[in-house]
Amino acid sequence: MPRTTISVINADVGSFPGHSRTHPKLLETAAQMLKSERGKLLTDSFVTHCGDSLELIMMHTRGIYNEEIHRLAGNVFMECTKVAKSLKLYEAGQDMPAGAFAGNVRGMGPGVAEMEFEERESDPVLIYMADKAGPGAWNFYLYKIFADPFNTPGLVIDPSLHEGFVFEVHDLVGKRKISFACPEESYNLLACVGAPSRYIIRHVFKKDGTIAASTSTRRLNKETGQVMGEDDPVMIVRAQDGFPSMGEAIEPFTIPVLVAGWMRGSHHGPFMPVGLCDANCTRFDGPPRVICLGFQVTNGTLIGPADMFDDPGFDRVRARCNKLADTIRAQGPFEPHRLSREEMEYTTLPAVEKALELRWEPLGE
Ligand code: 13P
Ligand code: MG
């Protein structure tokens, strides 16, 4: 049996109205294109959206960073961009790199989370997809799922998890990476990932090197100052039998956490877990939201999806998120609702400041 690869590649190639949601015609186009690859490049696929982000879940046997798979995703986004342009959807082609699409989408507009593994006897996988939330949004949850015994009792009582996990952290500014074994190094891990605008948990591994979780990490390009699709991260988590249970992997989403993103990618707001039917952004272009689809991975196919947050068990966190949204919204253009001065460097604010430059006078004290 060949190893199975899951590639989740997403992009915002146009939405309606404004930055709210993906048009059904885009979903249809993408689903048909991927379906026609079944038995060729792909063993299975599933297409969905979170807010204005079009999400391609692709199953295959070609491993991660595979050029043909990435090119396929690029072609789907290009076709969908054409449809978006014909409908004059908002910001059609937003996350598409300028010029032709040549192979790997890594580091370009689309977000990529991938993992390759040997299927277990039974292989439950959870795929989380967010909108209006920065790439560091997963840090809190991955720590809770894989390092916090108050969330994941399996770390204490299940011998197959008891030795802990290794977290691979990427520094998006310094463009470097580091790994922390937990629980031994959990304070070092938190020292970094508590700053999610810079440090991102990219992968979690078992101590024998088996992949447990993968995230997408795209971020604006500091050199070019291009802000391309930074606010719709995705994450893949394996569950059960040597990994946290399905329930342990969704439990931390009952905590209302503030993330960066929301309106104009410039505001902190509560990260709200929602069912698929609520994967549409409205209030203040949000609030930031996350969906989670559960699958059994079976011989390279996806059995599912199960809509994990479509459950009254998550009603209370949604209510608490709404309350938090009211509280923080009342601060209007003031920090910490608005992102920190440093993070605003990549928004439209510097243009406003530039216009004031000549009017500033020395204090003369
Ligand atoms: P997206 O990054 O989801 O397109 O949102 C941008 C925005 O300006 C929301 O107000
Ligand atoms: Mg988006």
Task: Provide structural commentary.
- With 365 residues, this protein is α+β, with helices and mostly antiparallel strands.
- It has two domains: 1-118, Alpha-Beta Plaits; 119-350, no CATH class.
- Helices cover 22% and strands 27% of the residues.
- It contains eight helices and 15 strands.
- Helix 1 (24-35) packs antiparallel against helix 2.
- It starts with a strand and ends in a 9-residue tail after the last helix.
- Bound molecules: 1,3-dihydroxyacetonephosphate (13P) and magnesium ion (MG).
Put the structure in a nutshell.
With 365 residues, the protein is of the alpha+beta class. The chain is built from eight helices and 15 strands.
Q: What's the SSE blueprint?
A:
Layout: E1 4-11, H1 24-35, E2 44-50, E3 53-60, H2 67-86, E4 111-117, E5 123-131, H3 138-147, H4 154-157, E6 165-171, E7 176-182, H5 186-193, E8 199-206, E9 211-215, E10 234-238, H6 246-250, E11 258-261, E12 267-270, E13 272-273, E14 289-298, E15 301-307, H7 315-329, H8 349-356
Parallel strand pairs: 13-14
Antiparallel strand pairs: 1-3, 1-4, 2-3, 5-10, 5-14, 6-7, 6-8, 8-9, 9-10, 11-12, 14-15
Helix pairs in contact: 1-2
This protein binds 1,3-dihydroxyacetonephosphate and magnesium ion.
The site of magnesium ion (MG) has 7 residues, from loops.
